[in-house]
Model the fold of this input.
Amino acid sequence: MAKITSINLSPHKGTFKYPVEQAELKMDHGIVGDAHAGDWHRQISLLARESIDKMTALGLNDLVPGKFAENLTTEGIELFTLPVGTRLKLGECLVEVTQIGKECHQHCEIYKKVGQCIMPREGIFVKVLIPGVIRVGDEILMETL
Done:
């Protein structure tokens, strides 16, 4: 079963995200209270625990959810293989994949330590289609059209 394992927020850009047990998703915005939310195509970022484990295997043992600045850490779903336009049901909410990966303009501390970072290749971004509340442990389902 695919599920949300961590919800991570930061009130200011450029600061580490911290975990919360639940969050409100708002249409045309993203996660209420997160500095990266807004009316654009990258409202919420997701990264799979399995992707984080690839970096841990390179010797980075201090990786915790949110360390890659992802809003949602997941498990049981290979996010980066989902085509743009895929719709995901997160608890009572519905989101749509808008982008796979991103360009890193300034390399993070993780990149500086091992010469690579997983978020630019395997992180995804979504926009909110149906708002509501998500919680750690919520199942992730692909919506069939």
The mean pLDDT is 86.
